[in-house]
Amino acid sequence: MKQITLTKSEKEIMGLLWNTDRPLTATEIVNLTPERTWKKSYIHLLINSLIDKQLIKSESLVRTGRNFGRAFVATMSEEEFMIFQITAGKNFSQKSIPVLVSALLDTTDDPDLILKVDEILKAKKESLGI
């Protein structure tokens, strides 16, 4: 798969879905984004675009007044999306992983995070038998 480009409006919607722990209807998305940069009448176009990009899916039907509306969830977490964006890039190779990990570690001085990364590396080594 190739990298996915998001518009500013799509990023706003994805940010909301990533930070909400339940499926949201189009009306809820509009109501929960009062500072949106898009017109509320564009919500269906934006939702369809995100569905086409396989970033959201319809999770359930929810009663909205006298009708039913689809409720949407993200198909991957924000972290999974960021990793996908990096690994789907045309210049990515597995040889890039040490540089990327090093660069990420350079952004923190939190000992707990460093220990967590160390645990992850140990578990990976163990699963590979090294």
Explained architecture:
There is one protein chain. The chain contains 6 helices and 3 strands. A hairpin with a 2-residue loop joins strand 2 (56-64) and strand 3 (67-74). A 3-stranded antiparallel beta sheet has the order 1-3-2. The protein is an alpha+beta fold and 130 residues long. Helices cover 49% and strands 15% of the residues. The longest helix has 18 residues, at 111-128. It has helices spanning 8-18, 26-31, 43-52, 78-87, 97-105, 111-128; strands at residues 24-25, 56-64, 67-74.
Briefly summarize what is shown.
The protein is an alpha+beta fold and 130 residues long.
Which features does this protein show?
130 residues; three-stranded antiparallel beta sheet; 15% strand; alpha+beta
How many strands appear in the DSSP assignment?
A: 3
Strand content: 5-15%
* Major beta sheet summary: 3 strands, antiparallel
Mean pLDDT: 92
Please state how the strands of the largest beta sheet are arranged side by side: 1-3-2
Please render the helix and strand layout as text.
Blueprint: H1 8-18, E1 24-25, H2 26-31, H3 43-52, E2 56-64, E3 67-74, H4 78-87, H5 97-105, H6 111-128
Antiparallel strand pairs: 1-3, 2-3
